[in-house]
Design brief:
alpha+beta, seven-stranded antiparallel β-sheet, single chain
Amino acid sequence: MKDEQSIKQLREFLKEDVRKRTDFTQSDQSLGHPMPPVEKPLEAGQEALALPEWRDVLTFKEDIAQLIARRQSVRRYADEALSAEEVSFLLWATQGVRRVQGERVLRHVPSAGNRHALETYLALTRPLVARDGRSFAPGLWRYLPLGHALVFLKSPEALPDQVAQAAMGQAFVGQAPVTFIWSAIPYRMEWRYRHASVKEIALDAGHVCQNLYLAAEAIRCATCAVAAYDQPAADALLGLDGEDEFVIYMAPVGKSREN
């Protein structure tokens, strides 16, 4: 059957020696083309709003073995907002910058060749309020890892419904106070790895979301990774072109109300 043949080809692609799939001497990096930006620039009229400091504010479960043992997917969330400090920590843990060394931007998650092809968006269905009074309104935001800040994008009507629709009707996604939505900008990875980038980008998304699971558990929050989403609807929600940038993963976060 055609579908069975397609599945077989995908399996062979995953098993194939990466050196057989691409000639790295012909990558844009090898050809001397400039490295793509590690972060999308602000558009005209946009303003970066710094996230609050979370250190000395949050309390943590400190036993890493306990965090790993308790990690689970949670789909029922309390009717309670997250604080700006909690979200600040979760962003730091998933795509935050550790240090900058020239063109190298080292983060808290691994990435093939340090390429970090993902962008992080937040769908806030409730405001984030910081201890110092700062507030981030409900709507769609994008994370700026270099400055550990957020930029406001838009506030769509009936955002919880739109988020759930983008997640193929999974209502729990729209009910969370915050949904992390990761997009891929494939050229960031293709610049070095060409055809092998497909596999590398998927692996990177897994690294990021696993950090979210552990970081959420550490501050007594919960999440659930979502790979079943409506690609056109998810891209349209964020205003992405679906070619040079597209949604690759989602994860709602909230306070668990599961026993």
